[in-house]
Amino acid sequence: MKVEEQKEAVYKALDELTPRLIDISTQIHGHPETNFEEYFASDLLSRTAEKAGFVVTRQIAEVDTAFKAVYRGKPNGPVLAFLSEYDALPEVGHACGHNLIGTAGLGAALAIATAFETLPGTVELIGTPAEEGGGGKILLADRGVFDEVDAAMMFHPAPQNQLWKYAMASRIVEIEFFGKAAHAASSPEKGINALDAVIQTFNNINALRQHMRTDVRVHGIILDGGKAPNIVPDHSSALFYVRSLDDDYCSQMVEKVRGCAAGAASATGATLDFHERGSAYKTLKTNRPLTESFQRNIESMGVLFEENEPMDDIGSTDMGNVSHITPSIHPYLEIGGSSLIYHSKEFAEAAVSEKGHRTMILAAKAMAATAVEFFLDEHFRMQVKRDFSRD
Length: 391
Description:
It is built from 11 helices and 12 strands. It is α/β, with parallel strands linked by helices. The chain folds into 2 domains: 3-167 and 284-389, Zn peptidases (Aminopeptidase, 3-Layer(aba) Sandwich); 169-281, 2-Layer Sandwich (Alpha-Beta Plaits), CATH 3.30.70.
């Protein structure tokens, strides 16, 4: 079967799957689960793939809510993975639309498996929990889940259509200071104020901002500021995110933040404990040939892309770590208009709207069509590989 004929078979399969996919997305939206607690979503997605003939392995890479569903065709063919996110945010639920991401990945994988009479390779659906600060894909990447994958795809719902944009390297830093308690009125001179050390750290970082590159973001909160106003705080802590568009420079900025905290400890006499939480989020490498294929396929369905600034609304994603291991795409598709704000109640509502589900199906079709080209066109695969190998 030719490429275009195979794409039509994929589209037909997804048309037939649409009611079921919308139901799955709606169920996940109605059962929001935060980092590493996504038992309902992981089970629903993996069971659906299993019923369709995929071989499912659960709790991969020692992560309880991660899974891999594999559909094997011809041996020695390419391996292509669709990635499914399905974690929610505290209080606001699926305000980043991961119910749509997880279900679109499922739909694309099912369509490829059902549309090919003999699949010329292997398709994988990889369930990746805890994108919202937990770095689920980082754990999976560090433990070899993507090592044999030749290309990886996912989409992200958004306020506007964007083929690609930058994503920052990100490090999560926790700072703790230990001082000495004393009565704040009668004998403050006998205490060592740990809260003063935290406040001085913030001041030191603010003084550092003049000398940061413009792509750097350092933002933090105080986790513990003491027990009562009349007690000199003997413990205080803060949590910072350190971000940059350069992986190496992000590491350098972490050390500068460490210096800010060390200076505060020296000034106040407090003892510093400086440590990082989790693994480092890397910058996102977007594969151009895969992106161009996705664009052609989704534009053939009426979705258009304006010339958007790739620096708009940038954050961090653990898909960045995957993109340093295998050729990857992470396009953004509009689900409710440019006024939408990520992580808001309105975004959560859009993620279960008719428009949101229509976008989800279009994303699944475009990813599946791009996968068809990847499986059937060896020259295209070589282009993808060469682009990935570029610095």
